[in-house]
Specification:
The chain is mainly α and about 190 residues long. It has 10 helices and no strands. α3 packs parallel to α9 and α7 crosses α10. It is globular, with a radius of gyration of 18 Å.
Length: about 190
């Protein structure tokens, strides 16, 4: 059984990666924050008695299910109502600040030239755009495997599919990213 401080530390460690994963899926910062908060509350209220080693996969599964619930609610809401503000947001990426993702120490920023910093920032924006353009299952598999650093079995458990499906989704995601980024002149 995880203690209260261990649970708090676990959630603190998972917060940034889980937010980024959620944001990539829902493409809305406010919704991503709400989903993340709901997932954390569900973990604490329903699974606080579980051992610390079981929490990472439980949390990933809760987060995935909460995102699916959000998409279902949006689908229903969009079928019933049309919000004219949604049409304006189609070409606007939202309020997400990429600078938060590329946080580096002050020493690193001063030693790097402005041109190199801008190039790195633009490269990260291209990568983020390419990841967001992936189909949802490929994006989920890619983020779980390479962002969250889960192995194939853990990723399959979180996604609720076979290990072969995870490998296929990851392979297709890598091919798509390689092709997209290659056309933009970004090479590994």
């Amino acid at each position: 059984m995880a203690s209260e401080t261990e649970l708090a530390q676990f959630l603190k460690n998972m917060e940034k990666k889980a937010f980024k994963r959620t944001f990539y899926h829902v493409r809305n910062e406010d919704a991503a924050l709400d989903i993340l908060q709901d997932s954390m509350i569900k973990l604490c209220s329903n699974y606080a008695d579980k051992p610390l080693a079981e929490l990472p996969l439980l949390f990933q599964r809760i987060l995935s299910n909460t995102m699916l619930d959000w998409f279902r609610r949006q689908k229903t809401r969009n079928a019933l109502f049309t919000n004219l503000g949604d049409f304006n947001a189609a070409d606007n990426d939202g309020e997400f600040d990429l600078l938060e993702v590329t946080s580096s120490s002050a020493d690193d920023a001063t030693s790097e030239s402005a041109e190199a910093w801008v190039d790195r920032l633009q490269t990260l924006e291209h990568i983020e755009t390419a990841i967001m353009a992936l189909p949802s299952r490929q994006r989920e598999a890619f983020l779980l495997r390479y962002w969250e650093e889960h192995d194939v079995a853990q990723t399959a458990a979180v996604m609720g599919c076979s290990e072969g499906s995870v490998k296929t989704h990851c392979s297709r995601a890598i091919q798509a990213l390689s092709k997209t980024l290659g056309t933009q002149g970004i090479r590994p």
